[in-house]
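Handout, section B. The chain below has 226 residues.
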Amino acid sequence: IIGASGPPSFYADENEGATNSGYDTDHKSFRSLCRIITGQQLAGSAAVAIYKRLLSIMGSSLDNPYGLTPESILAIADMDCGENHVIEEKLRKPAGLSNAKIRSIIDLSRHYKCGNLSDSFLFDNQITIDVLRDKLCQVKGLGPWSCDMFLIFHAHKPDILPLGDLAVRKGTAKLFGVKGSGKNGALCEKKDLAMLTRIHEPFAPYRSLSTYYMWRCADTKAFNAS
């Protein structure tokens, strides 16, 4: 599976020696979290389409996303006087976002504005994973899965194992040939926690990589057929 899938592309910039300099003014983490929020419970193409609409509202694009900032979101949100008409007409409807997602993005913007979140904090390798998760989960609409996706794909943390992700559990079952406590032998996040943790323990402290290959196992038709 490693030979067929190759290394995960989300570590490419790390391998090429990218640095975190300039993140404070770039709002890279903010845009990454906006993209995660807009894509929650959506298929890949739909998630990209919604995120592109949000960027467009801010005069931005995937190639030039820098207009999407906490300030640009709040400039629209703060025009409202509690009626939500401005948010509805200038943000939610044009972007095609649910009410919950637009509330989450606005709350995320406020966390950045007041300094609870920042690029320097979220990309600081001295901050523990537990502290990062605690801060991120204070944002409305950001749960453990969303936090883990940010930590793997955007903060490039090497030892994240999102057992709440169905595809990770499916890939684990296929690759290691195990059955769990769920329906038809599916692995259950809670009931099979000890088994899942034990299976992935040998990959520590690089369980973000084992996570990636579990996704590939769950998605690769040739592997599944075999």
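Note. Confidence is low (pLDDT under 50) at residues 15-24, 222-226. Compare this with the example in section A.
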